[in-house]
Specification:
The protein has 138 residues and is mostly beta strands. It has a single domain (2-137), classed as NagB/RpiA/CoA transferase-like (Rossmann fold), CATH 3.40.50. The chain is 12% helix and 32% strand. The chain contains two helices and twelve strands, in the order E-H-E-E-E-E-E-E-E-H-E-E-E-E. It has helices at residues 15-23, 92-98; strands at 2-3, 28-33, 39-43, 51-54, 57-60, 71-75, 78-80, 85-86, 103-107, 113-114, 128-130, 135-137. Strand 4 (51-54) and strand 5 (57-60) form a beta hairpin. 26% of the residues are buried.
Length: 138
């Protein structure tokens, strides 16, 4: 089970990545942001008709997935050499990563991999950073 997301704006495009996940026979989960800013994940089969717009993002329509997620691809504005990540500021992924035992990969543009980021007590690191040209294990 692989959790990803639908990118928007200047984020690295996840369309091909999500398609590759589906073509490999893996199950793809996408997040839905709840009113309290927490996330739940739902299975998505790649059909655009099974998405709804919520603010700036598209979220899957369907039932909440309650099983184990093996790999989570996390949107990030920046990641440092220790795996600390800068998100959008809502803390949704920090809360999700706190209880996540699988592999977490922050997806960033090349220039968003930095030496150090300021962190707060609630910030949760990722285990890897993926740019268009490299995978950095942290």
């Amino acid at each position: 089970m692989i959790a990803s997301y639908r990118s928007f704006g200047d984020e690295p495009n996840t369309e091909k990545l999500n398609q590759l996940i589906l073509e490999s026979g893996k199950k793809l989960l996408l997040p839905v942001r709840l009113p309290d800013n927490s996330l739940e994940f739902r299975i998505w089969d790649g059909n655009p008709a099974k998405l709804k717009r919520s603010g700036k993002v598209e979220e899957p329509i369907g039932e909440r997935f309650l099983g184990r997620i093996d790999l989570m691809i996390v949107p990030s504005l920046a990641i440092d050499s220790k795996g600390n990540r800068l998100g959008q500021g809502g803390g949704s992924y920090d809360r999700t990563l706190r209880d996540f035992s699988g592999v977490s990969i922050g997806l960033i543009n090349e220039d968003e991999f930095v030496r150090d980021l300021p962190i707060e007590s609630h910030d949760m690191p990722v285990k890897m950073a993926l740019t268009p040209t490299r995978l950095v294990r942290i």
